[in-house]
Design a protein that fits this description.
Number of helices: 5
Strand content: under 5%
Radius of gyration: 24 Å
Order of helices and strands: HHHHH
Helix content: 55-70%
Number of strands: 0
Shape: rod-shaped
Oligomer: single chain
Mean pLDDT: 86
Distance between the termini: 80 Å
Length: 87
């Protein structure tokens, strides 16, 4: 019952921030401790609105998409050059 009570309290951004300041991640979906911390890192959009940590967690999770590789273009260029030399 204690974990479920804390989980309900953690729906408030002030409580969530206080728990984070204390180094104790809020329990979520049955996860506690290190597992809960990993869950919050993986799902920052579930941190309560108004939390001062929400944006930091979201920025940590953002993955930069590659700008694209040029391997396909290089392969095409080499193939075109080879065909030109064979003619």
């Amino acid at each position: 019952m204690k974990v479920s009570a804390v989980a309900i309290l953690c729906q408030d951004a002030r409580v969530w921030d206080s728990m984070a300041d204390a180094g104790t991640p809020c329990p979520v979906r049955g996860f506690i401790g290190a597992e809960a911390e990993q869950y919050w890192l993986d799902h920052p959009h579930e941190i309560p609105e108004g939390s001062r940590y929400r944006e930091d967690y979201i920025q940590q999770v953002k993955v930069e998409e590659p700008q694209g590789d040029m391997d396909g273009l290089k392969d095409f260029g080499l193939m075109a050059l080879t065909m030109l030399l064979l003619l």
